[in-house]
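so im writing up the methods section and need the Membrane protein record in one place, dumping it here so i stop losing it
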Amino acid sequence: MSDTPNVNASSEEKSYSELHRPSHEFASRSDYLDHELQIMKPRRWRLNLPGRDFRFEWEDLVPALAGTIGITVMYSAVMTAWAAGLTERWDHVNLGADFIIENVRVEMLIPAFLFCILSSGFINPRANLGGNHGPMIPLIGAIALAGAHPLALAILLGIFGLALSFVKGGSRLVNLTGKGVAGGLLVYLGTMGAISQITSLVTWSEGLQAKHSLESGLGFVAFAILLINIGLYSYLARIGKRWLAIPLCSLAAIGIALLLGAGIDLKFTTAPGLPNLNPVYWWGSTETGWQLGLPTLEHFVASLPFALLAVAMWSPDFLGHRIFQELNYPEKTERVLMDVDDTMTTCSVRQIVGTAVGGGNITSSWGTYMIPAAIAKRPIPAGAILLGSLCIVVAIVGYPMDVAMWRPVMSIALLVGVFLPLLEAGLLMVRKNEDSQSAGICIFASIVVNPVFGWATTMLLDNNGLIGDKDRPKSLSIADRLFIPLAAFLVCTVAMSAVGMLPGIPAWL
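--- predicted struct ---
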């Protein structure tokens, strides 16, 4: 029987520091971590201090490392897509590798300090960190070619996000998403993401021979990396240590790749240094930074549908991350669950500030941090401070960025840290027959268009009893049952139609 005491009414009057007990007093490390989650009382938009309000544990290093690897990969992908699209769109713009590296460093310095260390670490530990909007990465080329401006997009996205968080729209949409819809969404995102990373790893492995003019191919490297990591991930899951998956599996991928001769593809080119931190350099003229100058009214009009779409995609993204906490945290830990509306506020402000100082990231809840943190049963603040510090170190040192962006590390980290846990969580949520029906329709609709369309369509059908639990509409108001889901569906559909994301319908804006 666990030694973990229940958090009863009398403990409500005591502070976290008074309720804290050393780990050696518990039967297991898991019991100690459960107790820490149950006694925490985060101060919302007030100063939280180590020792008084939270503690650092060695488990916090795992999500911090995972988040650093993940965000380095994601930021690099975002800046590469922006550079390619804007260079193709504008004759006077020529953004190369130097621009990409310097911009990634900007994003890893200022936002890491302001919104990882200060905001989520000390000011509001219930707001998850503002990371990267992964589903938007494939659209960045289209955004650039449509004539959008990164700064205009950031301002609009931030305004829409702040407006939605002000009316508590994010949490309401999350609460209106049934288990079947949420489970289907997670299964789809996990499956598609896993397939994408496996394909990328295999393509990289098969291309080594031609890239480096080798006499014999190295196509078997990908299979060896995947095979070893399947065994390692399974073992970690078996012993209840999946939160170690990203660092251990990434190290295994590096070791196997080097042992089998793929190390010839690992180049250390990012030297130590600091980026230009002057916003005028990035946006002040058409000769420096982004080479675009400040945005005009035309840029705001072109950015509008993409900003609407990005904010519409926040709710299902936030939902997936909060679900991981609910699945892995013990009972009576509602106070440490991420607050969706506070996270939306943080992401909105981070979007505007991060881009204003020169960055190009499109922000959302930081999944490569939250998912490992939830599995490790750790709250937000301590890991956020470590993550922000690691990002700053990596940005200044430079060379770790080359390792994080190496294909074996990138693909394995995303596989075991994000997509496999998403798939597993989705399957856990789909247990009842009516939930599996909603999940199936959500996956089907997501395949037809994308996961945002799948979420909005299935939420509308599910809340009206047309699929899933037929008794669900009886517990909902007319607004929750019809008006809000219909509004979400219309906003998503119109925004996607405007930018040409609906099959067979050309972009009309």
